[in-house]
Amino acid sequence: MTAYNLTEETKSVAAAIITPKKEKHSLKTVDAKLTSRDVGNIIQIPLEFQFEKEGDYLIEFTLIGTKEKLLIPLRIATHEWPKFSRRDLEFLRATTAIPKAIRVNIECVKCRSAYLFEHSPLPEHELAPNTKPFPKSGTFECENCEHHLNLKDLQGQLLFALISAIKQQKGATK
């Protein structure tokens, strides 16, 4: 979230999720401090919430002590886990236009430790130096503070983007 026109006084911002059934779940309250007078001030609030059902949710940000609220619509949908066909894998091996693996840099929201994760649908692919495999369980425990990071959804989205790029390239080369 970006806040404009903050004063010297510290403000608190509360974040909540409103479910399709209009149930409100408080997530976190953070202090927003003036960091720059020239541009908006970025306020980072980790949205750690377990979405259990598809539907239309709202993310609500409230500036404590005011009537100011920001509501952001969020549609949650489930998808099948991306599956790569034998032809998809053959195409991926043969092309230089698409990366052979997905890679993402993740920062622990608790202690700010950074990790680089990598995954390839190609069984013969070796991890690049200084990368970690995505955990099979989908949850990674920070090595410094033991905070649990849920990576399964992100991994699925990145694999879906990779398979979409393969299908697009295959269509372009016909």
Explain this structure to me?
The mean pLDDT is 86. The protein has a four-stranded antiparallel sheet with strand order 3-2-5-6, with no helix packed on it. It has two domains: 75 residues, no CATH class; 87 residues, no CATH class. The longest helix has 21 residues. It is built from two helices and eleven strands; from the N terminus they run ββββββαβββββα. It has 174 residues and is α+β, with helices and mostly antiparallel strands.
Query: Beta-strand level of the residues, as a percent range?
Result: 25-35%
Give the overall shape, derived from the CA principal axes. elongated
The rounded distance between the terminal residues' Cα atoms is: 44 Å
Number of helices: 2
Number of domains: 2
Q: State the major sheet.
A: 4 strands, antiparallel
The secondary-structure class comes to alpha+beta
- Poorly predicted runs: none
Number of E-type strands: 11
Placed side by side, the strands forming the largest sheet appear as 3-2-5-6
Task: Give the ordered list of helices and strands.
Answer: EEEEEEHEEEEEH
Rounded to an integer, what's the Rg over CA atoms? Answer: 20 Å
Percentage of residues assigned to helices: 10-25%
What is the residue-mean pLDDT, rounded to a whole number?
86
